[in-house]
Amino acid sequence: MKKYPFSITDLALPSPRIGSIDTYSGFGPAPKLAIKAHQKFQAKQHLEHPDYASEVIIQHSISFKRHLFHLTGRMDGVYQGESLRIEEIKTAFDPQKLIDVLADHYFTHPYWLQLQTYGYIHWLKTQTLPQLNLMIISLRNHKAYPLPLDLNIERFETWLDTRLGELVEEIKDAKRRVKRRQKHSTRLIFPFEQPRPQQKELMRAVDSAMKQKKPMLIQAPTGLGKTMGILYPALKESLSRGQKTIYITPKNTQHQIAVNTVTLLQSKGAAFKSLVLTSKKKLCMKKEPVCTSKQCEFAQNHYTKCTEHDLLAKARKKNNLEASFFKELARSYFVCPYELQMACVPFADVVIGDYNYVFSTTHANSRVAAIALGETERPNLVIDEIHNLPSRSMDYFSPELNVSFFEFYLNALHKYPHIFQKKLIKIINQCIDLIHQSALPGIAHPHLAQISVHDLKQQEEQLNQFLSSYLESDLVIEENDPILKLCNYWSEFTAALEFVNQGYEEFFIFFHPQRNLLKISCCDASRFLKEHYLNFQQVIGFSATLKPFNYYSQLIGLNTPDLHTEEFASPFAPQNRKLLLIPQVSTKFKDRKSNIVKINEVITRIVSVKPGNYFVFFPSFEFLEQVFHQIKVPPTFHLLRQERVMSPFDAKFLLQKLQQREKHHLFFAVQGGMFAEGIDYVGDLAIGAFIIGPPLPVFDWERERRKEYYETHYQAGKEYAYIYPAMAKAIQAAGRVIRTENDRGLIVLLDNRFLHETYSQCMPKDWFVENPQELISKSILNDVSLFWSPEK
Question: How high is the pLDDT of residue 412?
Answer without folding.
Answer: 76
